[in-house]
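Example 311, ligand heme C.
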Amino acid sequence: MNIQQRFNLIFLATFFLGAVAIASISFIFERQQIQAEVMSQARLMLESALAIRSYTVQQVRPAISAQSSDQFFPQTVPSFAAHETFSILHQKYPLYSYREAVLNPTNPRSRATAWEVEIIQRFSADPNIGELTGHHRTEQSDALYLAHPIQITDESCLSCHSTADAAPKAMIQLYGSSNGFGWKMGEVVGAQIVSVPMNFAEEKAQRSLGILVISLFSMSILIYLFFNWLLRRFVLRPLAQLTTAADAISLGQKPTAEVVATGSGEIGEIAAAIKRLQQSFERAMELLTENEGGTKAGPHTDAARTEKDRL
Ligand code: HEC
């Protein structure tokens, strides 16, 4: 294996390990960022639901109740208002949902499903939890949910949710007397649950990872080419020239190209050493020729001179 192959092997191994480390760290970081983003969307939805509920209690209910006291308008019920508003949003964004899931609801559409029951039970076991988050997989998407408990902390709720007798007659006519009663003070009756899809978030994280891998790959190709050019230009070519020169000197010939001993570093030192070797060799040849010239005369001396001149 020559120097270039060795360097390239080191380069490829380093690049591969580095790229895997960078890609993994970025993917984890990106995923966390996106989860935080999705969670803030869910929080915003939950806050919107609370705002709709407050608006209904503070403005819609007094306005409608003032006009008619013997009729029951579900529009005055905060839960109804929030549910209806988010149904409209759900039509446009089917993967986003807001639910007031209740174990024993007045309106059957709010009955908690199996996974919602689990959340409500966790809140019932410890009402201090306050908030639960997690993943929920549906047929269409992998969703992130944010849930808050619905706990009866206000006596006024019981006027419609304790017994059918206590509830307004007009309400019973509309909803019947079998659902949504028997709620007690302090009881966790259900949970507000916002679901936000994670699919887009996952796709976004994967897209970012793809872009990162392509960028790393393109950059590594450029670095690889540049690195190999540098290696050839500043290491391999000078080394090859020095090897040829050293070869020639070792055979008693004059190197075809002048050995230039400039520059610092290992290559410069080798060049200087070869240059010194060449000079010593020439000096030795000169001495040899002079000695031979002193003892013998004739064509041999001329040949040595010619050799000296050539050097
Ligand atoms: C005037 C009667 C009335 C009062 C007071 C009332 N509710 Fe309701 N509530 C209803 C009706 C009617 C519905 C069904 C609305 C619908 O069709 O979605 C309902 C629905 C709900 C729901 C959705 C699940 C379900 O049962 O359908 C929750 C949660 C809820 N109410 C909680 C409360 C809380 C908490 C209070 C007290 C702060 C309260 N309600 C006070 C009448 C009332």
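Summary: The CA atoms of residues 193 and 222 lie 51 Å apart.
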